[in-house]
Specification:
About 30% of the residues lie in helices and about 30% in strands. It contains 9 helices and 25 strands. It has helices at about 10-25, 45-50, 115-120, 125-140, 160-170, 195-210, 250-255, 300-320, 365-380, and strands spanning about 5, 30-35, 40, 60, 70-75, 80, 85-90, 95, 100, 105-110, 120, 140-150, 180-185, 210-215, 220-225, 230, 235, 240-245, 245-250, 265, 280, 285, 330-340, 340-350, 355-365. A hairpin with a 3-residue loop joins strand 16 and strand 17 (about 235). Helix 2 (about 45-50) packs parallel to helix 4. The longest helix has 19 residues, at about 300-320. The relative contact order is 0.16. The chain binds flavin-adenine dinucleotide. Flavin-adenine dinucleotide binds near residues 11, 158 and 301.
Length: about 375
Amino acid sequence: MKTVLVLGGGFGGLAAAHELRRRLSHEHRIVLIERRSSFSMGLSNLWVMTGEREHPSQGKRELSALRDKGIEYVNEEILLIFPAEKKVQTSSQLLKGDYIIISLGAELAPQEIDGFQESAYNLYDDAEAFKLQAALRQFRKGRVVILVSRTPFKCPAAPYEAAFLIDDLLRKRGVRSQAEVEVHTPEPYPMPSAGQQVGDALRKMLQERDIAYFPDQNVLKIESSSKTILFELEDARFDLLVGVPPHTAPNVIREAGLVGSTGWIPVDPATLQTRYPGVYAIGDINFIALPNGMPLPKAGVFAEAEATIVAENIAAEVRGEVGSAKFTGEGYCYIDVGGGMAALGSGNFYASPAPHVELKPPSKQFRKEKEEFERSRLDKWL
Ligand SMILES: Cc1cc2nc3c(=O)[nH]c(=O)nc-3n(C[C@H](O)[C@H](O)[C@H](O)COP(=O)(O)OP(=O)(O)OC[C@H]3O[C@@H](n4cnc5c(N)ncnc54)[C@H](O)[C@@H]3O)c2cc1C
């Protein structure tokens, strides 16, 4: 009998636990440890922001449903990880596994930017996305700024989706001509890990909508009293600020000595194994350098694909075989652009010398597929 400890019940953890349960007979234990009691996808924040989804609770599912699916769900905080011994200390117990899959994601650190919490609606927090919905409803005129604080951040498309959706919302309300919409980011162009062509296409889409774009902007601090963002090069005023906060690896990962020089967990790009045999790191918490030097983007589709590879290889090993599944860097992302439409970016991020990613133009069909992307996983997992 083997025990697999799955740390974190977000996108990657849920996919990993289900893929393992599907492949392993029931004498083997799958234990998922997660401090939250429910799961929802980050992408729903955008629909909460626009009001298309009235409340964040509409995209939420209870994690207790895992127990009906043969997955042990421990609703506790992970306090310590001992990767060499494959042990995990939670708030109430010490768990020992034969394998560990670390899927603890990226932690949001708005406190790292002076003034962020007082000044910005944090787009990456569902409760704040809900408050932003009300703020946008009242917005009549002025400057809306979408600010990316630092790289890397999850879902490289999200700030651009926010800009497109806000533009669309203000047009529908007939107040767009009294408003300016701007994106300020430290990136050299949109979604650089997807390559220059995708970046150019997104820039064109921003231009067509009269959304001003300010790349290479490193925020130093935000002054809430004067509604000013202080950047290294120049300052920017805002009336309504939508922020993507800095991201860090959770403390428990740093304390376990698992992070490398990048601040994230280095893994084998094909197997997702860490330097500890039998210990894997998937999703936002890992760092995978692409052939062009950029990191693999942090996105749910990658967390899920990596989870499947790891589950397949662990299941093979449990059966006494040698696991040979390899993650090949394929990924895709539906990009909301407003008007009930989404574009689709897809391709191979492991391609050399640079990712091979194509951006298909917006359509209602892609937007429907995005909704189905969420629904099918929620229905399967919980
Ligand atoms: C606005 C927005 C839009 C997005 N859109 C898309 C999209 O369209 N497509 C896409 O593929 N991705 C999208 N993403 C990104 C996607 O949500 C993440 O990349 C994905 O959730 C990563 O999965 P993960 O399992 O690595 O981490 P997470 O899903 O963040 O899960 C990590 C889990 O670990 C838990 N945890 C952390 N520390 C502890 C601890 N000490 N003890 C117990 N539990 C702990 C957390 O509570 C969390 O539930 C979007 C994200 C946002 C914010």
